[in-house]
Amino acid sequence: TQHSPPLGFGGSPWLENPNILTCYVDKFWPPVLSITWLKNGQEVTGGVLETVFYPRDDNTFRKFSYLPFIPARGEYYDCRVKIEGLPTTFSKHWGENL
Question: Which residue numbers delimit the Ig-like domain (predicted)?
């Protein structure tokens, strides 16, 4: 059976100060996936940075995505991951709308 790969967030931003949210996906195969950032439910189209697929010793992969932003009260962010071959989209949520 296929299951959700480890998916996580990094970053402890201070309100109104520049920061970077980090979304990572770990232990997936094949190395085909898309990472989408959402701000208040709307897709973020600019400023996103991504790494290449990093191979692991167990023949799976790891990938990171970074979103530079300035957090403001009332905003929330989601990192949405779609892995090729899996029917489900996985998400992590950050922000006030928890």
Answer: 21-91
Tell me, what CATH number does 82's domain have?
2.60.40.10
Give the strand pairing for 76-83 and 89-95.
antiparallel
Would residue 16 be called left, alpha or beta, if left means φ above 0 and alpha means ψ between -120 and 50 degrees? left
Residue 32 in domain: yes
Cβ count within 10 A of residue 81: 23
Specify whether the CB–CB gap between 51 and 63 falls below 8 A: yes
Q: What is the pLDDT of residues 29-70, one digit of tens each?
A: 899 999 999 999 999 989 999 999 999 999 999 999 999 998
